[in-house]
């Protein structure tokens, strides 16, 4: 939980946004995030984000599912309650494969969805600050994070020079917090100390 | 930016294709004198080797035309930067189709009933019951129609693509009409492909070796095998051309997609392999398990499980990572492994049904395979050198240039 100061610039065209992202990075401003109405191919590379490790997590969840299925069925049918089913061995691997497959898919799918929500800081009864409501509609919102040495006026002027249509300064909580969107609550008030990272 | 649009066949490439074809010819001759003139078991071994090699490589190069038509129908644009490579590979359907046709006709007309028991159904109730489908006349007519259809429709698709060379770019209306025409011919090819490769042809050419036995998964299984090997072949040619400085517009994004195809269809193949195996294993009915008896519990056990390791475990683990699908070296390794693996798959599909007592995989099999590889190289190289490497007037060409995963 950290309350920080942000300079927010809104763009109305992705063709302007891409060069703007490059220029902003080049001039040394720290991009907190870029909020877009739809996924934009190549924006993650332009922003210099590293590849996600979600798929590595998915692989680990998957092999967890595989081992869970095989070890549980193996224990049930070999140790706990051996049954003779159609004269097959007590550990009939081919018959276990479909269930093993299903459990692998189930574990990796559910695990990856939950991990994805955690990484995106999405959950029920949890709130996150919205920098601009139209980021879900037709506006590309680039948010710069202010450090101790950042001059807001310079940052605003710079955003205007790279094509931002609407620019403002916001002091807001950067992470998620327990709360609800239908109840107005502000964790930040004017005059509160701003944490710098 | 200038592009090297004209492929010039490197001397080493031509030399190797000729050497491999020579090896193939010598192997066939040697095989004929060692096996082909012997008793009927030896003869079956000779003709069986010719059968699985020619059918495998025919279906692999034909998968390239399937790839073109399927992406055409899906309105795909990403493959357009290496479209001419897939077209060039599909030209090999003509020579290999003729060779396969000759071998298949020779099998039936030469009464190789040790391979095709159904040629002499007299006194066998089951084969007499199947004789409406499994009879020489239908076999011959359908074989000629199938191969002829692939050659004709493939040539039509290639002609449509070459019409765009050396002319002005299409207008929007012309582009629409062009895409529509492509879609029509592509769908005709796919319907023909479904009636042949995805159903009747594997039944007739391969499954009828075990004339009493049948599996409804068999044709899909054969198709999956040939398609994943076909994509591996496309990948090999694309990387070869890139390493020689051609195909500047193909980048890691396109190779990533080819890698995804190899990965996904390896798993699809395994799904069909397992579906066929598990149902028969579970039901445990003698007339069905007879197919797997000598494969799983007999001399072919090693090859049977090698098949699964090479075609499933290896692609699953090695191609899973994103970075490995973007690595040229690893992709080449996997493509070669997949081509070899599915060749072994076809080997056990045919030879394990002909020679059930002992496994024989020697110079003859590898030599014949080398001959077909040489033929594919020679035919594809020639086809590539005749046309520009870029289909630059195709309406979807730009989509491939800016392709991004």
From TrEMBL, chain A:
Residues passing through the membrane, by range: 57-77, 97-120
InterPro entries: ActD
Record key words, sorted: Membrane, Transmembrane, Transmembrane helix
Name recorded for this polypeptide: Quinol:cytochrome C oxidoreductase
From TrEMBL, chain B:
Record-annotated membrane-spanning stretches: 12-35, 55-76, 88-113, 133-153, 184-206, 218-241, 261-283, 303-320, 327-344, 364-384
Superkingdom of the source species: Bacteria
Record carries keyword Transmembrane helix: yes
Keywords: Membrane, Transmembrane, Transmembrane helix
Keyword Iron-sulfur recorded: no
This protein's name: Quinol:cytochrome C oxidoreductase
Organism: Flavihumibacter solisilvae
């Amino acid at each position: 939980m950290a309350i920080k100061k942000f300079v927010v610039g809104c763009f109305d065209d992705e063709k302007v946004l891409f060069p703007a992202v490059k220029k902003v990075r080049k001039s040394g401003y720290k991009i907190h995030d870029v909020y877009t109405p739809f996924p934009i191919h190549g924006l993650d590379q332009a922003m210099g984000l590293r590849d996600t490790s979600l798929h590595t997590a998915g692989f680990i969840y998957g092999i967890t599912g595989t081992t869970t299925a095989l070890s549980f069925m193996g224990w049930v049918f070999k140790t706990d309650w051996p049954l003779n089913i159609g004269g097959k061995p007590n550990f009939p691997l081919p018959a276990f494969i479909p269930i093993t497959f299903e459990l692998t898919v189930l574990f990796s799918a559910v695990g990856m969805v939950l991990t994805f929500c955690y990484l995106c800081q999405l959950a029920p009864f949890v709130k996150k600050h919205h920098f601009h409501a139209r980021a879900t509609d037709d506006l590309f919102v680039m948010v710069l994070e202010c450090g101790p040495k950042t001059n807001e006026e310079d940052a605003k002027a710079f955003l205007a020079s790279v094509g931002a249509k609407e620019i403002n300064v916001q002091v807001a909580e950067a992470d998620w917090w327990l709360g609800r969107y239908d109840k107005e609550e502000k964790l930040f008030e004017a005059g509160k100390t701003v944490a710098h990272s | 930016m200038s592009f090297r649009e004209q492929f010039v066949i490197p001397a080493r490439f031509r030399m190797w294709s000729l050497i491999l074809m020579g090896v193939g010819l010598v192997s066939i001759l040697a095989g004929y004198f060692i096996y082909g003139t012997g008793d009927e078991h030896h003869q079956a071994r000779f003709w069986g080797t010719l059968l699985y090699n020619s059918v495998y490589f025919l279906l692999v190069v034909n998968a390239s035309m399937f790839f073109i038509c399927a992406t055409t129908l899906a309105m795909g644009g990403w493959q357009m930067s290496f479209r001419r490579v897939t077209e060039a590979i599909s030209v090999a359907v003509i020579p290999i189709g003729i060779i396969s046709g000759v071998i298949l006709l020779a099998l039936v007309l030469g009464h190789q009933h040790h391979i095709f028991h159904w040629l002499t159904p007299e006194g066998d109730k089951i084969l007499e019951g199947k004789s409406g489908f499994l009879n020489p006349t239908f076999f011959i007519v359908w074989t000629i129609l199938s191969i002829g259809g692939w050659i004709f429709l493939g040539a039509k698709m290639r002609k449509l693509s070459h019409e765009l060379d050396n002319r002005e770019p299409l207008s929007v209306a012309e582009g629409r009409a062009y895409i529509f025409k492509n879609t029509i011919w592509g769908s005709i090819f796919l319907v023909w492909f479904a009636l042949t490769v995805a159903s009747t042809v594997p039944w007739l050419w391969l499954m009828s070796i075990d004339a009493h036995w049948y599996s409804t998964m068999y044709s899909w299984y054969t198709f999956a095998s040939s398609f994943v090997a076909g994509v591996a072949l496309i990948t090999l040619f694309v990387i070869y051309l890139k390493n020689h400085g051609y195909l500047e517009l193909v980048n890691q994004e396109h190779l990533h997609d080819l890698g995804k195809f190899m990965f996904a269809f390896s798993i699809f193949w395994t799904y069909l392999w397992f579906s066929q195996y598990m149902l028969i294993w579970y039901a445990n009915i003698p007339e069905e398990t007879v197919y797997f008896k000598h494969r799983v519990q007999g001399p072919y056990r090693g090859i049977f499980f090698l098949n699964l390791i090479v075609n499933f475990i290896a692609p699953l683990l090695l191609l899973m990572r994103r970075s490995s699908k973007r690595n040229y070296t690893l992709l080449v390794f996997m493509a070669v492994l997949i081509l070899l693996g599915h060749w072994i798959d076809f080997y056990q599909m045919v030879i394990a049904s002909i020679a059930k007592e002992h496994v024989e995989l020697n110079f003859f099999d590898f030599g014949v395979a080398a001959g077909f590889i040489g033929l594919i190289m020679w035919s594809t190289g020639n086809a590539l050198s005749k046309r520009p490497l870029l289909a630059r007037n195709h309406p979807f060409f730009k989509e491939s240039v800016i392709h991004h995963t």
